[in-house]
Amino acid sequence: MHEIPVPPAEATAAVPRLQRLYEHRHPALSPVLAWGTDQSGVWVAVEPNEGTPLGSILSRGPLTPPAAAAIGAAVLSGVAALHEAGIALGGFGATAVRVTTNGDIRLAGHPAAAVRAAPSQSDLRADVRSCGMAVCAAFGVDPAGAPAPPNISPGLVVTMRSMASGAMGPSADRAQAALREMAAALLSPDREMAAQSELATRAGGRELPAITPFLPEGTVAPKPTAPTPAPYIA
Known about the structure:
The protein is mostly helical and 234 residues long. It is built from eight helices and six strands; from the N terminus they run E-H-E-E-E-H-H-E-E-H-H-H-H-H. The protein has a domain at 51-203: Transferase(Phosphotransferase) domain 1 (Transferase(Phosphotransferase), domain 1, Orthogonal Bundle). The chain has a three-stranded antiparallel beta sheet. The chain is elongated, with a radius of gyration of 23 Å. The N and C termini lie far apart (93 Å).
């Protein structure tokens, strides 16, 4: 339960936005289970455990590119849905990006943003920049321009850095389309399933086990052996 103290006039103005969050739940947003207004402002009921913060997951090691792409696509999708509903976070950190033990990716903190006045262009732009920073963090890319990991395509690196710098502009839809275009191979259905499994494992505080591939006999050429020296005969 979140209690948001605001004047009665602001609470009344937030009613349509809160009702929209309640009625039209988005898979990339932590669900609003109930809400109401009282003399103190607004109260919002959410799930007791909204997931593990992205920062906590990354502190235990990097994600694979497909899992990082899934994070980026979900975060941008959630932000685009908020903007469409007339809500902006005005920027957010890695703690707002949550991963559940089912591997679902959700944004948290948006009910408080729904109580604020209509978002400005700077609020929208700040959200897109924060999305870019989250994507860079997920991929392990320095937004300032240091060399990126070699397993990430240059076009994808340019896209996430453009978001993080603000060059992408205030449109979350545009940023989402750009990311999906550049990360299309990483977002294929088979890789999405593997990414969700990885994220579920990491959100539960576990690490992916090392995989030893099975190679049938004859698949790999045998290692060369050094010739045995001939015996010395006096």
